[in-house]
Design goal:
Length: 462
Amino acid sequence: MHTHTRRDFLKIINLGIAVSLIATGLLSSSAFGQDKARRKPNVVILFIDDLGYGDLGCFGNKQTPTPHMDALANEGTRLTMNYVTNAACSPSRCSLITGMYTQRFGKFGMARGHPIPHDHPTLAEFMRDAGYVTGQIGKWDLGSEGQGPHERGFMEVARWAPSTEERTPSGHQKKQPYQCKKPDGSIVYRTDQDGDYMVEFVERNKDKPFFLYFSPFAIHTPLEGVPQHYRDRVRGKNDMYGGAVVAVDDAIGKLRTLLKKLGLEKDTLILLTGDNGPHPHGSAAPYAGGKMGGTQKEGWVHTPGIAWWPETIPAGQTFEGLLCTLDYYATVAAAAEQKLPERCDGKNLLPYLTNKKQGDVHEFIYWYNAGPYSFRHLSAVRWKNWRLVLNRKKNQWELFDLRKDPLEEKNIAEQHEDVVKTMKLKHENFVSTLPALDAFPKPIRNWAKPPEGWGWVIGDGK
Ligand SMILES: [Ca+2]
């Protein structure tokens, strides 16, 4: 009943928007007005936890079969210079959901529990207010208490399924986060459940524009509990990690199959990426680095990207321009034909993906962490083929040509003093635009989480 009430309300809201658009003449000049068969596009963001640049077949992986993500790449565009500006999990999610360099609101590093701005719409609030049904599945890991997905714009939130626990040999109870116990006592693998939630959301909302943020816990550690049938599909010994990737691919396959069945392929924009570089069992190839000990290298912040929107974004393309996940907000806003909020740092990718513009989307991309969690602080700049990074132990800037030296083995700062000077100056200028470290209160430990249980929280996202 609750759902129907809200849907009726939404119909009225949508009708109101349509009437006002017609009245102002906006609809007649829009893509929807020119082609009556065309509806406002659905948007799906597939944001995979710890997905490395080299973890997918379409990005060169030979061990792990990922046919569904490869199909998205073949039917869409691969983004080969796709960056997260603030790894790891929590700041990366804040970047995507706010479209802002998170340091602008005081989140200089991991800083779990640091609040996201109250006076700036999350992408979910933005899309809800644009007339979309907004849905979230999986891990949240951003904002402080009171800023859960169901409180910051997501109208339909999949509850976080309870984990099972087992007793270790030493007698401790240990959670099994990928093994979820259903009310009937049966066990379901969390990634399978996340895929089923995706199907439920799309089935429920197929007749209206929807925005889905799919952020599964996979392929984050612990590397355990992956069903054998997924592991069996991986070549080589790395089958627990690879099997987790295969399971994500199968979940995405459920979405692909459903979009095809419902005839929604041409009306749906999908953006896929990872929140940070891989666990040591994963692959950042051809780059080095990732989470744990690899946070100073390219592979921690350079993730695979795929943009898919049949008949709008051409099939089989590779886009090599520099871009970052801050651009996803701007791109989604453009797809929904909405004006971007003022404080967003990203740019609309659609002119680049449809070949109306060429080159780098951002001439420079910056990394700057400060405050606690210093072991993984990163100060770096990307420009053209260059990567300038502060070696924290030596307190000196090092320069690498990623095209010739993707593993960053040869520091060529001395041979290119002019390049170093330009990039250092740009980095200083960027840092000078950020607030002081002590301008915000310290993060609280009570961070926001999705509600626990089974099924959905359905409301107004407030
Ligand atoms: Ca992560």
